[in-house]
Amino acid sequence: MQLPINALELIEKAGRICHKSENKINNESAKVFVTKILELGHESVFEHVSLTIRLITNRGVTHELVRHRLCAFSQESTRYVKYSDIEFIEPVWWNDWSIKQQNIWLDSMKRAEESYRQLVDNGAEAEQAREVLPNSLKTEIVVTANLREWRHILKLRCSEKAHPQIRELMNDCLIVLKREVPIMFDEI
């Protein structure tokens, strides 16, 4: 995660331009200012701070994540990466499954990996062989968005209505953000 060192101070400096109240800035004023902005719902000033997060998850989760259009995404490419060692992410409900259900999933991943290798071994390019890879395939994605958009994403994806796999990932992000950017994410 990359975050500007003084995110709250940057938000305050930008926001105080609106009312020409820069003279009220002091060592303690940023937290008070941001708290007031949150209460008023004037979140446009949060767009002055961007945050970049590197996530490791499965392809299914990234399909949901990339729907947030006010972000920049750089994702591991199954088109260009020729996998020699394929990794899969266990579903969040793994421990709730019976041994039989777990074995069905494991067998499916094993067959997908074998099919991928057979295609590659028989001359298929990575972009062709990827057709047999499942949503459980491990992937890495780097996501950059401003703090206003991160607040929006986290409100949606930490909700009980969100898919459990993305909710678990975003809740982990939220824990870190609450620590790293105090005040900004406390009510989520």
Secondary structure blueprint with pairings:
Layout lengths: L6 H11 L11 H12 L9 E9 H7 L6 E4 L23 H23 L4 H4 L8 E9 H11 L6 H17 L8
Antiparallel strand pairs: 1-3, 2-3
Keywords:
2 domains; elongated; Gyrase A, domain 2; single chain; 12% strand; alpha+beta; 7 helices; three-stranded antiparallel sheet; 188 residues
Helix residue percentage: 40-55%
- What is the straight-line distance between the termini? 19 Å
The helix tally amounts to 7
The CATH class of the largest domain is identified as Alpha Beta
CATH architecture of the largest domain: 2-Layer Sandwich
Report the portion of residues in β strands.
Answer: 5-15%
The helix/strand class is alpha+beta
Profile the largest sheet. 3 strands, antiparallel
Rg over CA atoms, rounded to whole Å, is 21 Å
Give the rounded overall mean pLDDT.
94
CATH topology call of the largest domain: Gyrase A, domain 2
Encode the helix/strand succession as letters: HHEHEHHEHH
- Report strand order across the widest sheet: 1-3-2
Q: Work out the count of structural domains.
A: 2
The low-confidence parts are: none
Silhouette: elongated
Concise description?
By secondary structure, the protein is α+β, with helices and mostly antiparallel strands. The chain has two domains: 1-78 and 138-188, Gyrase A, domain 2, CATH 3.30.1360; 87-136, no CATH class. It has seven helices and three strands, in the order H-H-E-H-E-H-H-E-H-H.
